[in-house]
């Protein structure tokens, strides 16, 4: 599944991180990422980003025009999805087998994903029973690169009144994950949104059989929902 680099060239850890970030930017409907946003994402300079993009372009992994977003080629997308698969299977392994909490696993997986072999990843997948979602609800791409996303998923701030199941929670902020865990919210939780949910930077929800919760706006924005009857 892993895309091969151009002859005589190796895909570095930094390059792998870039490919994954470019792919992940649009996974849940976001806009394609720009060079400026990549610099902010990785805390580096525009010059360093430009150098990396030039190398990835030479390797046939991205295409880029000045002042436009960076886009993956077919080969770049295959490599990015393979890295995402590694990352999410490692997160699942750390939570389900080693007892990590869900806010701890992202950074560990970021380090391990570059070191583990394809053989180890496939054995982790088998050991876990071929999970379809990681601890945060993100779909785990299959070995063939397919990534089944839930249909009609909506970000909580954009959702209208109704009954929903939490399908995914962004793992960008460990503090948000801890807060949501304290509220008993995770993938699979069922919540109800009323006709008026926003108030002074918070969002009110009902969950767990009628328990009311008030979520800060950043925590609410981390939740992705699928409508339930």
Task: Tell me the series of helices and strands, N- to C-terminal.
Answer: HHHEEHHHEEHEEEEHE
Taken from the alpha-carbon principal axes, the silhouette is globular
- What class do helices, strands and sheet pairing give? alpha+beta
Helix content: 25-40%
CATH class of the largest domain: Mainly Alpha
Per the CATH scheme, the topology name of the largest domain is Arc Repressor Mutant, subunit A
The CATH architecture of the largest domain would be: Orthogonal Bundle
Could you tell me the strand content as a percent range?
A: 15-25%
Number of strands: 9
Number of helices: 8
- pLDDT below 50 for ≥5 consecutive residues: which ranges? none
CATH superfamily of the largest domain: Winged helix-like DNA-binding domain superfamily/Winged helix DNA-binding domain
Mean pLDDT, to the nearest integer, reads: 91
Main sheet attributes: strand count, strand direction, barrel closure: 7 strands, antiparallel
Radius of gyration: 19 Å
